[in-house]
Amino acid sequence: MCRNIRILFNFAPPVTDEEIGAAALQYVRKVSGFNKPSKVNEPAFDVAVQDIAAVTRRLVGALQTHAPPRNREEEAAKARLRAVARFPND
Q1: C-alpha span between 90 and 87 (Å, rounded)
Q2: Which end of the chain is less crowded, N or C, counting CB atoms within 10 A of the terminal residue's CB?
Q3: Contact indicator for 28, 45 with CB cutoff of 8 Å
Q4: Which regions of the chain does DSSP assign to beta strands (E)?
């Protein structure tokens, strides 16, 4: 599950709210142990996802670097190569 949390900082074009929300959802799923919470836990789960997304937006917005922005296509290609090396039979 943690493999789905991606680096969000220093990309061109910048990270989207959807990407931040997906990372927040994966984080809350991992920490809580719930893929989908029960009805009684759903409000707390949803608030946690929103809170983590807001903190992530603030963090990514506040970070600074002198490095050139990462290229999404190049990073995706590198990830595919790592996956092939890691899981050769998939």
Answers
A1: 6
A2: C
A3: yes
A4: 11-12, 70-71
**CA count, 13 A, side-chain hemisphere, 73:** 0
The two tokens of residue 62 are: 């506040």
Amino acid at residue number 47:
V
Burial class (CB within 10 angstroms; exposed 0-12, middle 13-18, buried 19+) of 28: buried
Query: On the CB side of 68, how many CA atoms lie within 13 Å of its CA?
Result: 2
DSSP 38: -
* H-run or E-run covering 56: helix 42-62
Give me the amino acid identity at 40. Answer: V
Lowest pLDDT segment from 29-43, 47-61, 76-90: 76-90
Q: What is the rounded distance in angstroms from the CA atom of residue 59 to the CA atom of residue 38?
A: 30
